[in-house]
Amino acid sequence: MSMNKDDLFYVCTMIEYVARATHNRSRDIVSKLSDDELKHQLKVAEVNHCLSFEQVCDEWIEAFHITEGDFDNISACRYKVPSVTSIGRVYQRLILATNTDESHMIQHIRKVYDSFISDEIADYNTSMYYSNPDYIKCSYEAGELLA
Fold first, then answer.
1. Low-confidence residues of the chain, pLDDT below 50?
2. pLDDT, position 116
3. Does residue 81 lie in a domain region?
4. Is 147 domain-assigned?
5. What's the pLDDT score for residue 2?
6. I need a surface site. Which of 4, 41, 75, 114 has the fewest CB within 10 A?
7. How many domains does one find in the chain?
8. What is the pLDDT of residue 53?
9. What value does the CA radius of gyration of the chain take, rounded to a whole number of Å?
């Protein structure tokens, strides 16, 4: 699958936006999308980016039957909450830096969101989301946070 890095950035940002809007973890949103639908979202990202996040969010909630969850990492945050685009960029960089086979991009996206690093990125009371991208990549590859 040929992929534009900006389209990946948009989809990662939308995953974060929908997760926050519905009080779910990012991995929960990714799990609602089939492989074909995730691939479709990457293809239509260049069109959807012209729409508001709110509109696309509403469309995802309806189309993928995303229900209200109970995850709230916003009100627990003691510091400035990072923007959805900041978190989208963290995921985009990590996915691009660790994917070794572009033909398996969809599976790799799922693997990243299902990994321990996703919980670390979602904890806005730590420095993970604004850590050096190489540190995040190396920690992800090691399967644990590096000292």
1. none
2. 97
3. yes
4. no
5. 60
6. 75
7. 1
8. 97
9. 14
Q: Residue 7 corresponds to which tokens in the numbers above? A: 């389209």
pLDDT at 1: 55
Q: How many whole angstroms separate alpha carbon 18 and alpha carbon 12?
A: 10
C-beta separation of 12 from 112 below 8 A: no
> Is 31 inside a domain boundary?
yes
Please say whether the beta carbons of 88 and 12 come within 8 A.
Answer: yes
Residue 111: is it exposed, middle or buried by C-beta count within 10 angstroms (0-12/13-18/19+)? middle
Full 3-state SS string of the chain: CCCCHHHHHHHHHHHHHHHHHHCCCHHHHHHHCCHHHHHHHHHHHHHHCCCCHHHHHHHHHHHCCCCCCCCCCCCCCCCCCCCHHHHHHHHHHHHHHHCCCHHHHHHHHHHHHCCHHHHHHHCCCCCHHHCCHHHHHHHHHHCCCCC
CA distance 2 to 137: 22
Range of the domain at 123: 5-142
Asked if residue 34 belongs to a domain, the reply is yes
pTM value is 0.95
